[in-house]
Design goal:
- About 45% of the residues lie in helices and about 15% in strands.
- The protein has about 350 residues and is α/β, with parallel strands linked by helices.
- Strands 5-8-11-4-12 form a 5-stranded parallel beta sheet. A 3-stranded antiparallel beta sheet has the order 1-2-3.
- A hairpin with a 3-residue loop joins strand 1 and strand 2.
- The longest helix has 26 residues.
- It is globular.
Length: about 350
């Protein structure tokens, strides 16, 4: 897609619209200048992560999108793909409080949230806060704990607060749950409840490194990672400012319609020329998918140092937004059709503006 042509008094957005819509070129230019000002922060974060993470550019970009959109992220992949390492490293780089929770079958909600403890000297109950009281929460192997423990995160993820006894405690910003999970086919794993999956902005599939990347991984690990020291290149103040900037990225109404067409095609595929998908899905994406798709497309535009969203931004990020929000039917399982197969068909069918 060609960049928009900027005139003296207005900006003509590209051919994604049936009619020309004008917006202030001054606003766009000012926004572009502000994006250039914060671009070094993103570059510095990527540079620091590159010291310890080889490849995995897709995963790193999605982590940045979640960070800049205040959206929780679910990383899925087999063990050994640096999921835990990249999250821990990112927390070091942006200088925020980090807490790691290892999910196990015997974990209790109090182990995550905290509990009330009776103080005999004072003769009263006091609060002992759990590991959830941090900025970055690494929920490691989240699907190894039963649903009761997983659901303990729901209030924190949605309301950004925790209730212990009669008192609610607000969690400090930025607050981000970064969860890892192993594929459900592995022994000792439990599927996440649909309500909890919907709270995750992105579900990112982490793939194996290439042959060249793995060779470099082997060499660096043999040489020793203890000699690598990550620098703190940003703090909570910078992250909050970038989040504010992401919300200001311009998205054209026609691109918003494109987002809605994609999401509605997951609910009513027959209405969008995909009748064969009707029997393959139990349910489609929720309104959170539409919200998150717009937010993530804006963040992707910012990562590319652009002040406006193009349809390709939506198309690139859509699988990560939708794959955990579509329920497959038994027929889809029988035909060995995956969620990503359905998403690809939808993206191919829905007209790009």
């Amino acid at each position: 897609m060609q960049p928009p042509a900027i005139g003296t008094n207005f900006i003509l957005l590209p051919h994604c619209m049936s009619t020309t819509i004008t917006v202030s070129s001054t606003d766009i230019n000012n926004l572009q200048a502000r994006i250039q000002q914060v671009a070094p922060v993103t570059q510095a974060i990527r540079s620091q992560l590159a010291h310890i993470i080889i490849g995995q550019h897709h995963m790193i970009d999605r982590l940045l999108i979640g960070l800049y959109c205040n959206g929780h992220i679910l990383l899925e992949g087999v063990p050994g793909l640096a999921k835990t390492l990249v999250i821990k490293s990112l927390a070091q780089i942006v200088d925020v409080a980090f807490s790691r929770i290892q999910f196990t079958p015997d974990l209790l909600p109090a182990d995550v949230l905290g509990t009330m403890i009776y103080n005999q000297q004072r003769g009263e109950f006091i609060v002992r806060k759990g590991p959830i009281f941090a900025n970055f929460i690494l929920a490691d192997e989240i699907n190894r704990a039963p649903a009761k423990v997983q659901s303990a995160l729901l209030e924190a993820m949605q309301e950004k607060q925790i209730t212990l006894g009669d008192t609610s405690y607000h969690l400090e910003e930025p607050f981000l749950v970064l969860a890892t999970q192993n594929p459900l086919e592995q022994q000792g794993t439990y599927p996440l409840p649909e309500a909890q999956q919907d709270r995750f902005m992105l579900k990112v599939l982490v793939s194996y490194p290439t042959r060249e990347e793995e060779l470099q991984i082997v060499r660096e690990n043999v040489a020793g990672l203890e000699n690598i020291h990550l620098k703190k290149v940003a703090g909570a103040k910078e992250i909050v400012e970038i989040r504010r900037l992401v919300r200001e990225i311009y998205i054209d109404p026609k691109v918003e319609e494109y987002v809605l067409n994609i999401v509605f095609a997951t609910r009513y595929p027959a209405d969008h020329g995909l009748p064969k998908l009707q029997s393959l899905m139990q349910y489609g994406a929720s309104p959170r998918a539409s919200i998150n798709l717009v937010q993530a497309a804006k963040a992707l535009a910012l990562l590319q140092e652009r002040a406006y969203v193009v349809p390709d931004d939506v198309k690139q990020i859509a699988p990560d937004i939708l794959r955990h929000r579509i329920g497959l039917s038994y027929e889809a399982d029988a035909e060995n059709i995956s969620v990503d197969d359905i998403i690809n068909q939808i993206l191919q069918k829905v007209a790009v503006p």
